[in-house]
Amino acid sequence: GVEVGPQPQGVARADVLDKMRKIVKHGLDFVQLFNEGKEFLPCTIEVFKIMEKVDYPRNKNGEIIAIIHPKLQDQDWQPLKNGDPLFLTLDGEVIPYQGNCTVYPTFINEAAYYEKKQAFVKTEKIKLTAKHLRLSVS
């Protein structure tokens, strides 16, 4: 499967549809080249590995008591460091990120995740190495 976004539920965006078409085409091109015997050399890429889901701050009744801070909104995949603004209470108090390492939040403030008690997902940036790849024909 391919998930391309973000986009609100029930909305069809031309730019997101175009990105989806491009990634599917690249995937199909890869399969075709692989099946034709093309050799793919080893490579290293940076990826984001999910660490944990983070909920909104809540009171004892389970009600949300803070929203995503404006400086974090729309900053998916951008570094979030210790002390950076994270949430903003309804009284205007800033709740900073408290962590021992830089993380890369994603799915920030997405409507589809409110019911799942998810304000965003913390990810870490890691490197993956792909080995040499070639179809072996017997």
Automatic annotation (TrEMBL):
Lineage top rank: taxon: Eukaryota
Pfam families: AstE_AspA_hybrid
Annotated SUPFAM superfamilies: Zn-dependent exopeptidases
Example of a GO cellular component annotation carried by this entry: cytosol
MF annotations from Gene Ontology: hydrolase activity, acting on carbon-nitrogen (but not peptide) bonds, in linear amides
Residue stretches making up the AstE/AspA barrel-sandwich hybrid domain: 44-125
PANTHER family per the UniProt record, alphabetical: ASPARTOACYLASE
Protein name, UniProt field: ACY2 Aspartoacylase
Gene source species: Sylvia borin (Garden warbler)
Lineage: Eukaryota, Metazoa, Chordata, Craniata, Vertebrata
Gene: Aspa_0
